[in-house]
Amino acid sequence: MSMSFSDAQNGMMAVYDEGVYITQDGGNSWTGPQLIADKAPQFVQLFSAEHAVVTFMDGLVAITADGGQNWEIRYENPSQNLYSSNSFFSGRRKWLACWQERLNNALSR
Fold it and tell me: How far is it, in rounded angstroms, from Cα 18 to Cα 101?
């Protein structure tokens, strides 16, 4: 499970084998679970109420720019295990660091 809040009200939680849950009231209520590309992500990082990135065990990276209503796959590499050792840094460019490579181009478009 991974949880991230962009502020006191807006958060997302990725739960393995379930999906993404979203709150807009500080965690008092959650919507979901939501699958992305018919899969449940392992890790979520929220940058703002609208922008987030999720990673999957099978090498997918997806982003949203509308608070999780729509998701876009930005990276796919089944040989790259992305479920752990992820680091995100917000700002003008967003970076994803994992075991074997940087995935900055997958996130910054």
Answer: 27
Domains of the chain: 2-84 (2.40.10)
Report which residue type is found at 49.
A
Q: Give the end-to-end CA distance of the chain in Å, rounded to a whole number.
A: 27
- For residue 78, cis peptide bond before it (omega within 30 degrees of 0): no
Task: Tell me how crowded residue 78 is: count the other CB atoms within 10 A of its CB.
Answer: 10
Total residue count of the chain as it appears in this document: 109
The burial of 103, by beta-carbon neighbours within 10 Å (0-12 exposed, 13-18 middle, 19 or more buried), is given as buried
Q: What tens digit of pLDDT does each residue of 16-31 get?
A: 889 999 999 999 999 9
**8-65 pLDDT per residue, tens:** 999 999 998 899 999 999 999 999 999 999 999 988 988 899 999 888 888 788 899 9
- What's the predicted TM-score (pTM) here? 0.78
